[in-house]
Amino acid sequence: MEPVAGERLHNFAAQTRAFSLGDLLIADSCSRGHFIWRGGECPGTAGTDLLLLQIQGEGQAINGVRTMALVPGAIRVIDLADPYLAEDRGFRCLTLAIPRARLGAAAAGRPGGLVLPLT
After folding, report:
1. Which of 86, 91, 84, 90 lies closest to 112, judged by CA?
2. I want to staple 30 with a disulfide (CB 3.0 to 4.6 A). Which of 5, 60, 78, 92 is the partner?
3. On the CB side of 94, how many CA atoms lie within 13 Å of its CA?
4. 68 to each of 41, 61, 77, 94, how far by Cα in Å?
5. What is the pTM of this model?
6. CA-based Rg of the chain, rounded to a whole angstrom?
7. What are phi and psi of 72, to 5 degrees?
8. CATH class label, 9-102+110-116
């Protein structure tokens, strides 16, 4: 994570509170503008067995081959086995990290980049 273009490093601030519930992790994060890049890794290494379900404000991101238009309150799915790129001007985000095996068939293929809209 690094500041977005035009932001100075000394103006950057971020905070994350995380809670472990066995093999699940819940995190509440907030940040000033930032840029995130995570390269795709081989499945089974460095946390790639996790899927993230996030509720966040507006913005755009790319996970694998899918571009995500983020709508406040919508749930987005991030697959940590695929590359991830996002730029935010400031946000608050709730995250649930779930082991891929916990979701069974629902996690088949590459679910990253899906956005589940509000109904």
Report:
1. 84
2. 92
3. 5
4. 20, 5, 9, 17
5. 0.78
6. 14
7. -50, 130
8. mainly beta
